[in-house]
Amino acid sequence: MSVEVRVPTLGESVTEATVATWFKKPGDTVAVDEMLCELETDKVTVEVPSPAAGVLGEIVAAEGETVGVDALLATLNEEGNAGPEEVAPRHHSEMMEDKPAAAGAAATVDVMVPTLGESVTEATVATWFKAVGDSVAADEMLCELETDKVSVEVPAPAAGVLTAILAAEGATVAAGGKLAEMSAGAGAVAAAPAPAAAPAAPAGDKDIENAPSANKLMAEKGINPASVSGTGKDGRIMKEDVLKAMTSAPAGTPAPVAAPRAPVAADDAAREERVKMTKLRQTIAKRLKESQNTAAMLTTYNEVDMTEVMALRNQYKDQFEKKHGVRLGFMSFFTKACVHALKEVPEVNAEIDGTDIVYKNYVHMGVAAGTPQGLVVPVIRDADSMSFAEIEKAIAEKGRRARDGKLSMAEMQGGTFTISNGGVYGSLMSSPILNPPQSGILGMHKIQDRPMAINGQVVIRPMMYLALSYDHRIVDGKGAVTFLVRVKEALEDPRRLLMDL
C-alpha cells in the first residue's frame, strides 16, 4: 500500500517551508520515524519522519522547492507491500510481531517516547510508576514525562512485564526515543528487579548526522560542534541550535554562566534544598522575561462595584446550574465584558508582527490557571460567539485538565487576550505580565467590602480592583483606559451586555 508523506504542521502563523535536504532517495528502505527530509521555515528547521516502514517511492518536492502545510512531499511503499526484496526492517528488531505471540512465547516490546506536540523535541522523565519486574496491563501508566509546556503520561503498549528501564527519572529524552522494554505474551516472566539504568547514549551515535544547514553555518562561523547543544532527534544539531549558540556567546568563547550566589554559611547550606527547575517552570521564567524585554509594558488600574453582578448571580445561579449542569461563576461575566470592550478597542486584541499590526476579528480568550506544576494558560477559542453556559463549561473543563496535567499544546496556543484571576488566592492588587505575543491581559482581584461615597452617602459595597497590562507599542493610554472603563461599565450594569451597549 502506498503511504503519502506530507508537510507537517509548521507552527502558529507559519504557512510554508523550503525543502532543504533529502536524506533518502527513491528505492531506499526506511524505518518508521526515520528522518526522510528537512524543511526550513523563516523561524525553525523541521524534520520530516517516515510515517511507516517501507521503501521510498517517488519524491514529489525536490530540494529547494517551496511547499505549503500538508503538501505532498513523497510517496512510500509500506512494509509488506514493497515486494520481497524491498521490505524495510522493523523500526526496532525486537518490536512485537503484528500477529499474536505463539503459545508460551514472549515478545519484547519497546516503550517509546510518544509524540510530544508541535515544536517540542525533548522531555524529562519525571516519575516512573512501575519498577523493573512489575507486571502491567495494556494502557496502564508506566511513567510521566515533563516538557516545557505539558506533562505527558506514557501508557504500556501491551500487557506483560517491565524488563528494563533505559531512561531513569531526571533523564532528558528525545521525541521518538526509547524509554524501556517490556516482555509481552503468554511466556512473559517477571525478571529480578534491577536498578534503573542511567540514560543510555543513543544507539549509533557515530552515525548521527547534523542538519546540513547547521554544518554549513558552523563551518562559516568557525563554531566547534562540541560547543552546540543539539535539540534534534538523538541530539542532532539543527540550524536554530547554532543560531542560539551564536546569540548566547561569540564563536570560540565559553557560554556565559549565571552570576554566582552570595556566600552562604555552612550551617545554612546544610539546611537548604536544591531542586532542578521543571521544564514548565523554566519556560515560564523565560517567557515572562522575554515579555518584559520585548514589550513596552504599562499597567492601568480601575475598580468595579460588583453589587449588580453578585445580585444577578445569586438570583439565577440555582436555575442556571439545574439547566446547564455547571455553576454560574464570575469568569463568564468578565469574559463577556472583555469581549464587549475588545470590540470597541480592537488594538488590545491585536499583536505586532514585525512592522505590521495584526488585528484579530475573533476572541480566543486565555484563562490563566494555577496548577501544582506552575501557571498555564488554556485558551477558550471563539469566546466571542459563546453563551454564558458555554463559557462556564469550557473554563471548568480546561481548568480541570490543567490541574491534572492533561492539557495539550494546541489547547494553550493561539490566545488573543488573557484574563488572570489572582483574587482566588486573596490578591488585592497586582500588575499582571503580558502573555506574548498578546497585547493585553486583565488582572482580577479579591472582592472586598469597602465604604464608598454614592450620591452623597457612605455605603458599603463589594469592590474589586482591576488591572490592565498592555503593550504601549500598539495600545495608547486612551485605548487602555477606555477598555478598562467599558469592562467596569458592563459589570456594574450587566444589562448592557444583553443590549450590546
From TrEMBL:
<dbReference type="GO" id="GO:0005829">
    <property type="term" value="C:cytosol"/>
</dbReference>
<keyword id="KW-0816">Tricarboxylic acid cycle</keyword>
<dbReference type="InterPro" id="IPR000089">
    <property type="entry name" value="Biotin_lipoyl"/>
</dbReference>
<keyword id="KW-0012">Acyltransferase</keyword>
<dbReference type="InterPro" id="IPR023213">
    <property type="entry name" value="CAT-like_dom_sf"/>
</dbReference>
<feature type="domain" description="Lipoyl-binding">
    <location>
        <begin position="2"/>
        <end position="77"/>
    </location>
</feature>
<comment type="similarity">
    <text>Belongs to the 2-oxoacid dehydrogenase family.</text>
</comment>
<feature type="region of interest" description="Disordered">
    <location>
        <begin position="249"/>
        <end position="268"/>
    </location>
</feature>
<dbReference type="GO" id="GO:0033512">
    <property type="term" value="P:L-lysine catabolic process to acetyl-CoA via saccharopine"/>
</dbReference>
<dbReference type="InterPro" id="IPR006255">
    <property type="entry name" value="SucB"/>
</dbReference>
<keyword id="KW-0808">Transferase</keyword>
<keyword id="KW-0450">Lipoyl</keyword>
<protein>
    <recommendedName>
        <fullName>Dihydrolipoyllysine-residue succinyltransferase component of 2-oxoglutarate dehydrogenase complex</fullName>
        <ecNumber>2.3.1.61</ecNumber>
    </recommendedName>
</protein>
<comment type="subunit">
    <text>Forms a 24-polypeptide structural core with octahedral symmetry. Part of the 2-oxoglutarate dehydrogenase (OGDH) complex composed of E1 (2-oxoglutarate dehydrogenase), E2 (dihydrolipoamide succinyltransferase) and E3 (dihydrolipoamide dehydrogenase); the complex contains multiple copies of the three enzymatic components (E1, E2 and E3).</text>
</comment>
<dbReference type="InterPro" id="IPR050537">
    <property type="entry name" value="2-oxoacid_dehydrogenase"/>
</dbReference>
<dbReference type="Pfam" id="PF00198">
    <property type="entry name" value="2-oxoacid_dh"/>
</dbReference>
<dbReference type="GO" id="GO:0006099">
    <property type="term" value="P:tricarboxylic acid cycle"/>
</dbReference>
<dbReference type="GO" id="GO:0045252">
    <property type="term" value="C:oxoglutarate dehydrogenase complex"/>
</dbReference>
<dbReference type="GO" id="GO:0004149">
    <property type="term" value="F:dihydrolipoyllysine-residue succinyltransferase activity"/>
</dbReference>
<dbReference type="InterPro" id="IPR011053">
    <property type="entry name" value="Single_hybrid_motif"/>
</dbReference>
<dbReference type="InterPro" id="IPR036625">
    <property type="entry name" value="E3-bd_dom_sf"/>
</dbReference>
<dbReference type="Pfam" id="PF02817">
    <property type="entry name" value="E3_binding"/>
</dbReference>
<comment type="pathway">
    <text>Amino-acid degradation; L-lysine degradation via saccharopine pathway; glutaryl-CoA from L-lysine: step 6/6.</text>
</comment>
<feature type="compositionally biased region" description="Low complexity">
    <location>
        <begin position="249"/>
        <end position="267"/>
    </location>
</feature>
<comment type="function">
    <text>E2 component of the 2-oxoglutarate dehydrogenase (OGDH) complex which catalyzes the second step in the conversion of 2-oxoglutarate to succinyl-CoA and CO(2).</text>
</comment>
<feature type="domain" description="Lipoyl-binding">
    <location>
        <begin position="108"/>
        <end position="183"/>
    </location>
</feature>
<dbReference type="InterPro" id="IPR004167">
    <property type="entry name" value="PSBD"/>
</dbReference>
<dbReference type="Pfam" id="PF00364">
    <property type="entry name" value="Biotin_lipoyl"/>
</dbReference>
<dbReference type="InterPro" id="IPR001078">
    <property type="entry name" value="2-oxoacid_DH_actylTfrase"/>
</dbReference>
<feature type="domain" description="Peripheral subunit-binding (PSBD)">
    <location>
        <begin position="209"/>
        <end position="246"/>
    </location>
</feature>
